[in-house]
Every structure is written in structure tokens, then in C-alpha cells.
Amino acid sequence: MMEFLTAHFATILFYILAGLTVAGGIGVISFKNPVHSALSLLGTFLMVAALFVLQHAEFLAAVQVLVYAGGILVLFLFVIMLVNIKRMQPEQVFLSRVAPLAVAVGITLGAIIAGLLLAGSLGHPAAAPAALQSVQGQHVGNTEAVGWVLYTKYLVPFEIVSVVLLVAMVGAIIFGRKDPTLEGRGGRMEP
Amino acid sequence: MSPATIIPIPHTWVLALSAVLFVIGTIGVLLRRNGIAIFLSLEIMLNSANLAFVAFALQFAAGRSIAVALTGQLFVFFIIGIAAAEAAVGLALFIALHRLRETIDVDRFNILRW
Known about the structure:
The complex is a heterodimer of chains A (191) and B (114).
Chain A: H1 2-7, H2 9-30, H3 34-54, H4 58-83, H5 99-121, E1 134-135, E2 138-139, H6 142-150, H7 155-176, H8 180-184
Antiparallel strand pairs in A: 1-2
Chain B: H1 11-31, H2 35-59, H3 66-69, H4 71-101
Helix pairs in contact in B: 1-2, 2-4
């Protein structure tokens, strides 16, 4: 029994994490209150981070927790609070008018993606986690390996991402500030 | 029993989970009317792509140099950066729209100019 548990440790863990991830995802799209959706998404993010650890991407798991769970999700919660401040009640009609069509499109897409992914990945060699942790024949941790590759081969994309983030920040400030021309025309306008 | 005897997860399972998550995100984007809920679903789709990248990175790592083996993980790193930028701009847009129309119900944004 103990030997079985040890041998299938990763498998059991994967089943639990996968179940929780999918449950969190379904929670995101089925909770009426956006705050509940966001908290459900937090669970999904943390479970995906744990799955990253299982896939030997320890650095990405840390980034996932720090950036997604700590940064992006807090931003979402801030905006939900800002936007729904007047009516925190969940909407009565929260589903789109084309709900059956949406589900049908999703299931079709899922079948196509699953088929493509499985067809493309069958018959290939098994995983070799050791290759992810050695720089020039020297065994290092995942974080050091990621840093080494990031600052050598992917230096230019890395800098471009920083510029993209700067542009997004400036754009967010410009979108978020009050528009004097609209205020001058009487503020809110109905079509 | 040494830790080396742990049986690794088949990558096809991770890819199947990634596909399931992507479908959940797609259905959420099409189904919900609240703009922020649509954004939350978009984040699920980005995460499912990240999961697939990491699984493929592990699968194709054998016998390759570290720069090639880690390409999938580096892509995930960049995707997380782009997702942060996308969330900032998109949420600022929703704040601006809410200021203008007092709603973020995307079914009510059906004209291009007002």
C-alpha cells in the first residue's frame, strides 16, 4: 500500500489538483457575483501553480503565485469593487442570450483542441526533467536555469516585454482618468 | 524506497486538462455578460495555454540544450507579462466605460459611437 502510494504520488496529486482546477474554472463562469468568480479564479491560479511544480517549472510556479494571484487578481478585485460600488447585488440576468450556442461552440472547440493536442503528442519520448536543470553540464536549479536562458537567448524579448508593460501602464492611466471633453458635454450620455 | 521510483505523469493528461480549461474559458467568454467576468474567463484561457507550454517543455526537454529545453517555460514567462499588461489596459477600459454608461454589461455596448 505504502509502495503504491509512493510510486503513484505524482499521479494522485495530479488527479486532485486537476479536479480542483476544473472545479475552480467552472466556479468562475457559474458564480453570479463577480467577487465570487474572482476568488474562484484565485483557487484555479494556485492549483495551476502547483501543477507547474509537478511539471518541473518551479520558478514559473512562484511567478504564477506572485504575479497572477498576488497582482492581477488584486487588480481585478479592485476594479470589481470600483465598478459595482452602486449595486453589489449580482445581476439577475447574467448569461448571454446565446447561451446554448456558446456551450455548443465551446464543446466543439474542446473536441478539436483535444484531438489536435493528443494527435500531436502521442508517440513522442517520455519526459526528462534533468535536461531542464543543467547549464553547460552543471546541475543547477530551475530558477538559475531560467535566469540564465532569459538573460542570454531571450534578452531582447525580455526588454520588449518591459516596454509593453510600460505602454500598458501609460495606456491604463490615460483610459482611467476623467475625460474633460465628455464632462463638458454633460457627462454621461445615453444613445 | 527512493524518490526516483515515482512514476511521472503522462504529458497527455496535462494536455487534456489544458484543453478542458481552455473550453471552460471559451464558454465563459461567450456565456457571461459582465465584462469583468469575461476577463476572468480570458485569464483561465491564458492559464490553460501556459499549462500546455509547460507540459510540452518537459516532454521535449530530453537530449536538448538548456536554451532549447527551457523555451516553453520562457514563453510562459512572457505570456504572464503580456497577461498583466492586457489586464491593466482592459480593466482601465471597463472603468472608463462604466464612467460613461454606468454598466459593464457587454450586451449593452452594441454601438461603436455615442
